[in-house]
Amino acid sequence: MTATAHALVGGAIAASVKDPALGITLSAATHPFLDMIPHWDFGWGWKKKNKVTLFLQALFDLVLGFTLAYLLFGQNISFWYFTACVFASEVWDIMEAPYWFLNWRFPPFSWIYNVQSRMQGKLKLPWGILTQVAAVVIIVLIFKGF
Ligand SMILES: [Zn+2]
Fold it and tell me: Sign of dihedral through CA atoms 129, 69, 119, 115?
C-alpha cells in the first residue's frame, strides 16, 4: 500500500496502544497484511519510471502520510512513540528502497523485495485507492475501540 495508508495505521496504533513495545510490533506486523489487500501504489510500473520521478513520488507519499497521521493521531501522544510507530509501519518498504534506488540486488534487500512483490494485491485506479481508504478506516475504528 501507499506509505500514507501505512502511516495512518501506524499513527492510529500509536494513539490507542499504550505499551510502546506492543504498539511498535503491531505497527510493523500490520504492513504485510495491508499489502495483501488489492490496492494501487506509486511503485506500480516502477521499472518504467525514471528514478527521480519515483523518488519524488515516494518522498511525497512519506511526507503526506506522516503529516496526515500526525494531524489525526499524533498530537496528544509522545512524538517519539508516534514517529516510531509510523516508521515501523513503513519499515518493509523503507528496507526495499535500496533495491529500487541503488540497485542493491542482494540480501536482505532482494529478499524483502521478492517477498513483498509476491504478496502485493494489485488493483488499478480508482478502486486501488478506495480499498486503501476502506482498509484504513476499518483499522482505525478497530483501534479506537481499544
Ligand atoms: Zn509493503
Answer: positive
Q: State which residues form the domain around 92.
A: 3-144
pLDDT tens over the chain, length 146 residues: 999 999 999 999 999 999 999 999 999 999 999 999 999 998 888 888 899 999 999 999 999 999 999 999 999 999 999 999 999 999 999 999 999 999 999 999 999 999 999 989 999 999 999 999 999 999 999 998 86
pTM comes to 0.94
Q: How far is the CA of 109 from the centre of ligand 1 (A)?
A: 13
* Sign of the Cα pseudo-torsion (91, 96, 102, 105, in order): positive
Q: Say how many domains are in the chain.
A: 1
Distance 143 CA to ligand 1 centre (A): 21
Residue 139 Cα, ligand 1 centroid: separation in angstroms?
17
DSSP one-letter string for 88-112: HHHHHHHHHHHHHHS---STTHHHH
